[in-house]
Amino acid sequence: MKGYLVLENGSIFEGERIGYNKDAICEVVFNTSMTGYLEVFTDPSYAGQGVVMTYPLIGNYGLTKEDQESKKAWQEAVFVHEIAEVESNFRSKMHILAFLEENEVPGLQGVNTRKLTKLLRENGTMKGKITSDISDVESIIKEIKEFQISNLVEKVSSNQKTTCGKGDIKIALLDFGAKQNIIQSLVNRNCSVTVFPQDTSYKELLADEFDGIVLSNGPGNPEDCTVAIENIKQLYQKATKPILGICLGHQLMGLATGASTYKLKYGHRGPNHPVQDVKTKRVCITSQNHGYAIKDDSINPEIAEISHININDKTVEGLRYKGKDIMTVQYHPEACPGPEDSSYIFDDFLIRVIEKRKDRV
Q1: Annotated catalytic residue: which of 26, 191, 247, 336?
Q2: How far apart are CA 337 and CA 334, in angstroms?
Q3: Which CATH class is domain 2-149?
Q4: Which of 81, 290, 308, 332 is catalytic?
Q5: In this predicted structure, what is the pLDDT of residue 359?
Q6: pTM for the full model?
Q7: Nearest to 186 by CA among 354, 346, 356
Q8: Known active-site residue 250
Q9: I want to staple 298 with a disulfide (CB 3.0 to 4.6 A). Which of 197, 259, 316, 352 is the partner?
Q10: Superfamily of structural domain 153-360
């Protein structure tokens, strides 16, 4: 069956419908990963978005649910050039088309993804609709422009407290849409991680049983997270334990301390973004997935200093907070998919956690 992606600027891309047969409106973004499509599809930070995969062949090694970053796929749609007919991998348990059907994700294959990606780079991210009927394009464009994407963090966050791992180091993780490998990276480092819903009071996170706090990644515009921002203001003021913010957590800590954010033209999404540590000058290749960034000139130098910058566009990639044991990064130190260059962020965080715990004892 033919299908179409209609963008809010009137551009139309044709393809063959795959996955679940339904229409959907979404923010259309592109990801430059060559592998790791399952991890991309199950990353909660893609909630509300339709993902264009720039690599031309997707699904060639199948998938196994052990590699999922969350319990399900969160994106609204998938756009690819070609789906592999046969997967080749001894670990594969499911074909990607079956996965999209099971997760009720619609998609298109046969799309000119090169042209679509160039359009998004030149004009910026925009909303679009996947549909089989373009008999009334003007009405579709009107519908797209009127569509509002909201409440994404509430949608993806855990709805109850859970604990993972049995390590000696006790970590509280505030879940705005956390990827599983953030939790697993901590568990692998002798941590017991208690995952809290996104609206949990700062008082619970500051309980004596926890040695450190992590603010997770998540979807959407950080300025929409008003409850979380107020909560994190209290964490900033009252916490004596180390705090690590990742992606959305980084942005929310910035907003909570007086900085401001802005929407990037087309975002950073892929495993190939070079980031430099301002102090050591070391450059790591990082995995990223975000559409917003902190304005560098809005950061109060008495509160925080820029610790990392993006080599490509000089955007803020990390902050260290003065007089506080708080560090935040815009990229994903757990990668998946992506390189492991920046996994040392977890090691640095836990070194500080252990030192602070000794001081308390």
Answers
A1: 247
A2: 9
A3: alpha beta
A4: 332
A5: 73
A6: 0.96
A7: 346
A8: no
A9: 259
A10: Class I glutamine amidotransferase (GATase) domain (3.40.50.880)
